[in-house]
Fold this sequence. Notes:
The protein has helices at 30-40, 63-66, 79-89, 101-107, 109-118, 163-169, 183-195, 217-220, 225-228, 282-290, 311-326, 331-335; strands at 51-55, 70-73, 94-100, 123-128, 174-179, 200-205, 229-231, 239-240, 246-250, 256-260, 298-305. It is built from twelve helices and eleven strands. Helix 1 (30-40) crosses helix 7, helix 4 packs across helix 5 (109-118) and helix 6 packs antiparallel against helix 10. The chain is an alpha/beta fold. The mean pLDDT is 96.
Amino acid sequence: MTTNASSNGKLTRKDFVSDQEVRWCPGCGDYAILKAVQSVMPEIDVPRENIVFVSGIGCSSRFPYYMNTYGMHTIHGRAPAIATGLKLARPDLSVWVVTGDGDGLSIGGNHLLHALRRNIDINILLFNNRIYGLTKGQYSPTSELGKINKSAPMGSIDRPVNPLAFALGASATFVARCVDVEVKVLQSVLQRAAAHKGGAFIEILQNCNVFNDGAFVPITDRAVRDDRQLRLEHGKPLLFGKDKSRGIRVRPDLTPEVVEVGDGPGQVPVSEIAVHDERGSAAYAFMLAQMDYPEFPAPMGVLHAVDAPAYEQLSAAQIAAAKQKNGAGDLKSLLHAGTTWDVH
Ligand SMILES: Cc1ncc(C[n+]2csc(CCOP(=O)(O)OP(=O)(O)O)c2C)c(N)n1
Ligand code: SF4
């Protein structure tokens, strides 16, 4: 890898573009995500040689080839485990996991769960296209009930996983959702994830225009997205719609309801609209995660961002304490400390 910074010494997006031919289908949402990630890398203030992208298997998992950083294209579903080991061994690295809904939530669900609950300081980007792209259109853990495709000719009877609720259920300390082509929001959330000390989970709604085209159009289409997305901003009321004329009121039992905002008859004053708190309870974040179109607008942005000790820090502190108590240790003498056998 060569460092070819621009004349003022600052890296630009182009410095993060690799020399590999991008092999995604024309029109795939992965291109927009790649561009957004490449643009954010110069901003995260980490030397390029300290950035690593780790992926599993899937179209999305080709990502590390296209980043001019270090990278590992590993085995199906195991990127979180590899990234965990890497971050433990080299806490100075900025480690990014790129995974698909199949890779991360099916075969890799267990690995994703443990990476999140441990709060290891890695950034996990889950590209959710609600289908298996690489293997040509089988249903995935996020496919909708009743979805008809190659592996469910009569419609899927699996209840889908909600990735945000999954991450919150694993006690993730940073949970967000973005859309592939809504680049500004995506970039700002990527920056927030990079700055977060602990595990960051971002679900990115990604269009697979070949096997599941338009899966998110009802909430991402430009003409309707203001009415169907709830853009979360810390400290701001949960308002939506082009003119912010609707909002979310939350009952004491955390049941949300959509209301018309205003001072007229049947309307609710803005003071009664819930104010977004990224640092709020997990129950509040779950409430947001469960909100879905058409009953509710779909929340976008950072749902939850709280502080907790990162796994690699706890691990390093424990190793230091053990060394102080017992000395540096000697692996060979440890291995030979008990009864040993020679196996022939
Ligand atoms: C152990 C193993 N099982 C199954 C597969 C086949 N396989 C490759 S990618 C994939 C799923 C890809 O879907 P997703 O993670 O959603 O990524 P996408 O291609 O949609 O980006 C599967 C089942 C494999 N490569 N290895
Ligand atoms: S199959 Fe779908 S997800 Fe894979 S590259 Fe093509 S459009 Fe993208």
